[in-house]
Amino acid sequence: MEPEANTRQPVALIVGVTGMVGVAFTEALKKPTALGGPWTVYGVSRRPLPTWFPSSLLNKHIMLDTLNQQQTLKILAPLASQITHVFWVAIQVSESEESNISLNSTMLSNVLNALTSSPNSKLSHVTLQTGTQQYLGPIHDPTLLTQLVPRDSPFIEDYPRLPFPNFYYALEDILASYSRSLTYSIHRASIIIGSSTRSYYNSLLTLAVYALVCKHQNYPFRL
């Protein structure tokens, strides 16, 4: 008798699905060439899907405030036997880094607890997106910002942690606490350019094209 093939289809839960990276993940996972596919994709956001979102690519949209532990458990626990991968691209930022740690840690902990508390949990991998605050320190906190010592790029992944509170460190520590039951990967993006009506980073692409034109025409670069 031939061994039974593993036919389990991967099911992704994208937390923060309406953000720039959430949209990109949705589109990438639904491509016929997506690694490990075909994927079933569930998306979580606090608000309804905007009109511009490619909702046809989602198998399910879940409107959920992941800060609410009971609501998160009620909605996500029944899906624990389906979801195999979590893509974490959610973020809440305030001016206090201690508040950032509390908010973002609570969200991630609530989701992971809901998806792993069942004996039938299928969660096997979590992808966490962080960023350059890993190397620069708590840049959103005006009190701590004045104490930071700039680091020159390029940044090195095994740089030691800075002696400041940092919600990225907290999220990594939460994932590490689950390392016996699942694997995880951390992606420290720098500047992200993509589909968004609110990101001022997108203007950098226009600026780069302008710089190339100036160089090609031998014009001075003026802003």
TrEMBL record:
PANTHER family in UniProt: 3-OXO-DELTA(4,5)-STEROID 5-BETA-REDUCTASE, LOW QUALITY PROTEIN: IRIDOID SYNTHASE-LIKE
Question: What is the originating organism of this protein?
Answer: Helianthus annuus
Q: Which InterPro entries match?
A: NAD(P)-bd_dom_sf, PRISE-like_Rossmann-fold
List the top taxonomic levels of the source: Eukaryota, Viridiplantae, Streptophyta, Embryophyta, Tracheophyta
Q: State a single Gene Ontology molecular function.
A: oxidoreductase activity, acting on the CH-CH group of donors
| Gene3D superfamilies the record matches | NAD(P)-binding Rossmann-like Domain (3.40.50.720)
Name of the protein this chain belongs to: Putative bifunctional polymyxin resistance protein, ArnA
- Which residues are in the PRISE-like Rossmann-fold domain? 13-196
Pfam families linked: PRISE
Biological processes, Gene Ontology terms: lipid metabolic process
